[in-house]
Amino acid sequence: MNQNQQLELSKEKVPLFKFILIGDQSVGKSSIVKRYKNEEFNYNIKATIGVEFIKKFVQVDKGLIEIQLWDTAGQEQFRSVIRSFYRGAAAVFIVYSVNLKESFDQLSIWLNEIEYHAHSEIIKVLVGNKCDLQREVQKEEAESLMNNNNFSLFFETSAKTGENIDEAFIQTAKLVLLKYFSSDSFRQATKVNKKSADPINIIKSSNKNESFEGQSPQQQQHQDSNQSGCC
């Protein structure tokens, strides 16, 4: 077995975690992903249609993990599709643009989406993107939102300059790994493999109305009560 084959074999054994980015259209989610993956910025990036994802191996302290980073569309018409992709996610990045107050005001809607469709222990990360532009949202406002809604981390980033992009994902990966080894329920809720995390399989699973992996009993009860209503 040559060195490249050994490397590929070792990568098959590393922990796999799903990270998902949500937020309104045009807040820069795709630009964040592109900057993180390729260290580049494109002014003419197209709007995401549905969901796209990349994968990346990341060194966390002395260990190696694999991240599947899911970039979701911000348009309302795609929201029902996006809900399927919360399954098994270890962390969710809720993104707004610091130069667009409306995107910040809409965060309550995205927080409700997380409440109903993600497992209860998902790590929430607040991201204020486009911090290189003139701001409409003050940092103190975002910090208040963070403290009042149980976010684990908060970053102001710029996909254009690269500010805090790597740091946001590295710090989140460290927190996810720590929680993975300290919480059995989190470990079960984020248990995915390469086959079950494939976009086609997630959509197929959603179409069969399967329950979300890692749902709390309260969430399952809420789902069941909705399905059993007579009207």
From TrEMBL:
InterPro entries, sorted? Rab_GTPases_membrane_traffic, Small_GTP-bd, Small_GTPase
Q: Name one GO molecular function term.
A: GTP binding
Low complexity: compositionally biased ranges: 215-231
* Compositionally biased region (Polar residues): 203-214
- What ranges does the record give for the region Disordered, renumbered to this chain? 203-231
This protein's source sits in the domain of life called Eukaryota
Q: Member of which family?
A: Belongs to the small GTPase superfamily. Rab family.
Record-given protein name: Uncharacterized protein
Which source organism?
Paramecium sonneborni
